[in-house]
Every structure is written in C-alpha cells, then in structure tokens.
C-alpha cells in the first residue's frame, strides 16, 4: 500500500491506496473553506497552520496500515510554498521512520488521475484542467508524456469565480456560490467581451473579464437593493464561452478522440454542458471525475503514486524539494 499526502493549498488530505489493484482503502480530507471564507481567498500562513493541525490528526487514523506501507507519496509541486512544506516534511518523516521510499507527485498530474480512481487509465487523452490555480489544456499520452498546449496568461478560470464572488461579498470558494446565483439569472443581460476573441492565440486570460465584471458590480451597488444574479449568469456564460471558443479553434487542427475536464472547477454544470455540445461534432468521449474528486484530494495523488511506484519513479530524501511553480 501507499500512503499519500496532499497539502498544496487549503485542503489537508491523506489516502491509502492498494498498489496491486489501485483500490482506495482510506481517504480523509479536512477542508479549510470556512476559515478562509472571511478573507475571500486563501491566506497562505493560516493555511499552513491549519495543515499542521489537521494532517497529524488524519495520520493517526492511518496507523493500522503502517506495517503494510511500501512507499509514501506527497504533492511536491505546484502549490503554495508554505503549505507544500507541511506535507513534504511529514512525508519525509514517515519515509525515515518506516524505512520506505518517497514519491514526489505533481498536483496537476494528480488532477488528471482523479479520472482514474479505482479504474484503469485511458490514454491518449486531451485534458482541460480548470482549478483555482490553473487553466490549461494538455495532451496526455502517458504518465511520462504530458504536453501543455494552452494555458492562462493571468488568472485561472476558478480564481475568476473566486474574485467575482468576493466582489459580490458572497464568500469563498466562489465557484459553487456563483453557479448557484447564476441559475436564476439572465446569461445575456450583460454583454461582456469574450477574452482574446480576436486573437489567434490559443491561450486564456481572465483579468479583463474580471475587471469588466467589477465595473458592473459597482454600478449595481448604487441601486437601492442590488441584485447580482444577472451579472453572475453573464459572467459564467462569457467565462465558459472563452474556453469553448479557444477549444473549438484548437480542435480544428487537433480533433479530440477522448476529452476530459478535471480540477475543482470541472464541477461547474454550465461548463460541462457547453463542453458536451462542443464535443458532439467530433463524436469524442467526455471523461469527468466523480464530483467528490474534482476538488483537491489525496485519492488522486495516491492513484498517480501507484503508477509512479510501478514505474520506479522514486525521489531521494535529499533531492525531494517543494517547487511552488509547476513544470508541466
Ligand atoms: O482543484 P481545486 O480544488 O484547487 C486547486 O488546485 O486550485 O479548485 C478549486 C477551484 C476554486 O477556485 C473554486 O472556486 C473552483 O475550483 N470551483 C468552481 C466550482 N466548484 C469549485 N468554479 C466554478 N464552478 C464551480 N461549480
Ligand atoms: Zn488542485
């Protein structure tokens, strides 16, 4: 079995995965959403302190598995430096104490493998990763062969939902809150410009849309009883249209056979429905993670770790270090 730790942002999670079968034997996650909610975003130092409290509590529950562990895995990149360190330090201590090898996992590959929890992998695969930290399209041929073909030049898709929710004083994380508010809104009420719509670049950008939404929010706030549902609906519509327009362009030269959406924001129902429409002419399969594994978790880290273990992809204790920025 492999014990895997995730602490790249605001979720403390540990899993135990059986190597032979990829079966998930244990998974526990403690989220910090409530603690960060009052700040409208993740406060790194607070997150690190909460990991230092939560991870040992979860680890205690894993003690029955200790004698069966063949390796310990941990998210080492990308993420917040001060929170990655919490997980990596714990993983190193476990590796030394139990005399087992350590595996440093890339969190983004973790999100890709959230599709394969207790399942066989399916490659090749075109993946759209939409999370709080990333918006990127990847061509995945195998665990070792992943190419990023498009990414955001500034904010990420999920982050833009968080920032818009903050402007509307809704709380954190913004994705589910905006999705909920948008349900009863008019998607066409505000004619926000689709980012980079005239650019030939296949890339993403959310800072301009965010600022356009800010102006609309400020204007609405001048009303006696401000109502943000139409702004939320129009924002969600344009944020999604930006993704589908760029993907459509990309598909012209690279038609997908199997397409997947992963990451916390892949839970967005409007995004899912629009991507389904986009894939129809290509007759491509759409893969999605189970809702509980879309956001950060250690089950996905454990699933990557099983394949890395089988491929001998270990790190040395001296060399394994955190890398806040991703190299994918
Ligand atoms: O993957 P994740 O848990 O953490 C990172 O690796 O960043 O993603 C969290 C992000 C947050 O920005 C959150 O607002 C967004 O995913 N999110 C959503 C939805 N649910 C979560 N964004 C849009 N619609 C949703 N339903
Ligand atoms: Zn993530």
Explain the overall architecture:
With 328 residues, the protein is of the alpha/beta class. The chain folds into two domains: 2-117 and 293-310, ATPase, nucleotide binding domain (Nucleotidyltransferase, domain 5, 2-Layer Sandwich), CATH 3.30.420; 125-288, Nucleotidyltransferase, domain 5, CATH 3.30.420. The chain contains ten helices and ten strands. Helix 6 (174-182) packs across helix 8. It starts with a strand and ends in an 18-residue tail after the last helix. The structure holds 5'-O-[(R)-(carboxyoxy)(hydroxy)phosphoryl]adenosine (KG4) and zinc ion. 5'-O-[(R)-(carboxyoxy)(hydroxy)phosphoryl]adenosine is lined by residues 9, 131-133, 158-159, 161-162, 173-176, 179, 263-265, 267-268, 295-296.
Topology:
Blueprint lengths: L1 E5 L4 E7 L6 E8 L1 H5 L6 H18 L9 E7 L3 H18 L3 E5 H7 L11 E6 L4 E8 L2 E7 L5 H11 L6 H9 L24 H15 L7 H25 L4 E5 L6 H11 L5 E4 L10 H12 L18
Parallel strand pairs: 1-4, 4-5, 6-9, 9-10
Antiparallel strand pairs: 1-2, 2-3, 6-7, 7-8
Helix pairs in contact: 2-3, 4-10, 5-6, 5-7, 6-8, 7-8, 8-9
The structure holds 5'-O-[(R)-(carboxyoxy)(hydroxy)phosphoryl]adenosine and zinc ion (ZN).
Task: Provide a brief overview of the structure.
The chain is an alpha/beta fold.
CATH fold assignment of the largest domain: Nucleotidyltransferase, domain 5
What is the percent of helical residues? 25-40%
CATH class of the largest domain: Alpha Beta
Query: What fraction strand?
Result: 15-25%
User: How many separate helices?
Assistant: 10
Q: How far is the N terminus from the C terminus? A: 27 Å
Q: Structural class of the helix and strand makeup?
A: alpha/beta
Q: Give the topology string: H per helix, E per strand.
A: EEEHHEHEHEEEHHHHEHEH
Strand order in the sheet with the most strands: 3-2-1-4-5
Report the C-alpha radius of gyration, rounded: 20 Å
In the residues, how many domains can be counted? 2
CATH architecture of the largest domain: 2-Layer Sandwich
The geometry reads as globular
On the 0 to 100 scale, the average pLDDT is 97
> Which small molecules are bound?
5'-O-[(R)-(carboxyoxy)(hydroxy)phosphoryl]adenosine, zinc ion
Tell me about the biggest sheet?
A: 5 strands, mixed
């Amino acid at each position: 079995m492999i014990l895997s730790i995730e602490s790249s942002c605001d979720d403390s999670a540990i899993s135990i995965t059986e190597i032979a079968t990829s079966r998930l034997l244990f998974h526990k996650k403690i989220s910090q959403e409530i603690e960060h909610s009052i700040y409208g975003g993740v406060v790194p130092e607070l997150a690190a302190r909460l990991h230092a409290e939560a991870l040992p509590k979860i680890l205690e529950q894993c003690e029955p598995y200790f004698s069966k562990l063949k390796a310990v895995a941990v998210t080492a990149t990308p993420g917040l430096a001060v929170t990655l360190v919490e997980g990596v330090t714990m993983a190193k201590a476990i590796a030394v104490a139990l005399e087992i090898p350590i595996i440093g996992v890339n969190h983004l590959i973790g999100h890709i493998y959230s599709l394969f929890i207790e399942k066989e992998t399916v490659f090749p695969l075109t993946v759209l990763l939409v999370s709080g930290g990333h918006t990127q399209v990847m061509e995945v041929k195998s665990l070792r062969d992943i190419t990023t073909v498009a990414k955001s030049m500034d904010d990420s898709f999920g982050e833009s939902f968080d920032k818009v929710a903050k402007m509307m004083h809704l709380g954190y994380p913004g994705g589910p809150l905006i999705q909920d508010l948008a349900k009863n809104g008019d998607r066409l009420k505000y004619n926000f410009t689709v980012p980079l719509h005239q650019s030939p670049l296949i890339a993403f950008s959310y800072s301009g849309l965010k600022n356009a939404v800010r102006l609309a929010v400020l204007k609405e706030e001048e009303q006696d009883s401000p109502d943000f549902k139409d702004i939320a609906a129009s924002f969600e519509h344009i944020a999604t249209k930006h993704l589908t327009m760029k993907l459509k362009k990309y598909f012209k030269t690279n038609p997908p056979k199997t397409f997947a959406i992963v990451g916390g924001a892949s839970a967005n129902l409007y995004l899912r429905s629009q991507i389904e429409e986009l894939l129809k002419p290509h007759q491509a399969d759409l893969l999605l993670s189970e809702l509980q594994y879309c956001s950060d978790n250690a089950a996905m880290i454990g699933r990557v770790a099983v394949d890395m273990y089988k491929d001998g992809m270990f790190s040395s204790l001296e060399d394994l270090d955190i890398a806040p920025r991703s190299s994918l």
